[in-house]
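User: Hi! I'm working on a homework problem where we have to compare a predicted structure to a textbook description. Could you give me the structure for the chain below?
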Amino acid sequence: MAEPSSRYNPLQRFTSPKRPRDPAALIWNKNQGGIQMPTNRRRWFWTLGLVAAAIGAFGVAGCGRFGCRHGHDPAQRADWIAKKIASELDLNDAQKAKLDLVKQEFLAQREKGKQEREEAFQTILAQIRSKQLDTEKLQALIDRRHKRMEEIAPSVLKKIADFHASLSDEQKEKAAKKFEKFHSYWR
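Assistant: Happy to help. Predicted structure tokens:
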């Protein structure tokens, strides 16, 4: 019988005519340079790996379309955000009413700009598909967006200022800490 080579051959375990039946030899074989798992254990690990990958894939797919949005439309998301702010800052009824006015103003301005956003999307899509980008069109689109923001900012900021004025010093400090924490996620 020939002496086994001291050099590791990765295909040796598949090409050897007879596999050792000793359990210790199956787990540790110095001639092959390391751990060799028995076939049924290898199948078990492969099965576990595939199951874990499937669970991960379904988990990611489940978070896909609506996973982190806390609702399917802007009104539901705004309600969720308002409830979260109210619970975090322990708002009273008057403060909740002012927060609701801020929410309603945001939603109203969003609805007014819906047609403009759709037109902007179609313009950008057409530019992407074109042979050459028209930078003047894109710059005009950006300028329109900035103008729109300048138009709506005063009404929204007035409502936010009214809400801010209704907060106590402790609530303002809580809000500042939450804002710092939120900002730290995006650094």
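For your comparison, note the following. Residues 24 and 36 are 10 Å apart (CA to CA). The chain has a mean pLDDT of 79. Good luck with the assignment!
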